[in-house]
Amino acid sequence: MRPQNTQNIQKEDFPLKEESYAILGAVFAVYGEMGCGFLEAVYQECLERELRERQIPFTPQPVLSDSRKNDSATPVCSWDGGVSE
Questions:
Q1: 8 A C-beta contact, residue 61 and residue 41
Q2: Is 62 helix (H, G, I), strand (E, B) or coil?
Q3: The model scores a pTM over 0.85
């Protein structure tokens, strides 16, 4: 499979451009300040603080449930975080 030609993608074609830019800015700020070599939990905490400082709404470590079985009480897994609307 050949890679897509990304040169023809217009700025308008990129959904949630400003939101994505703000989140990536927070991620790079944390990495730039902390550097590498820490456990994931350290970056998680730092990113949560950075998102709060930038007033970017998010949900830290939401629990995902198995909706196929209509069992919202049984957590399947959790993930690092989700940005809210």
A1: no
A2: coil
A3: no
* φ, ψ of residue 18 in degrees (nearest 5): -65, -40
26 or 77, which is more confident: 26
- Mean pLDDT, range 38-63, rounded to an integer: 91
Parallel, antiparallel, or unpaired: how do β-strands 71-78 and 63-66 relate?
antiparallel
CB 50 within 8 A of CB 43: no
Please give the average per-residue pLDDT across 32-50, as a whole number: 94
Q: Which domain holds residue 28?
A: 17-83
Structure tokens that stand for 25 in this block: 């800015």
**Tally of domains in the chain:** 1
Q: Is residue 22 part of a domain?
A: yes
What SS3 class is residue 35? coil
Cα dihedral 29, 32, 35, 36 in deg (nearest 10): 70
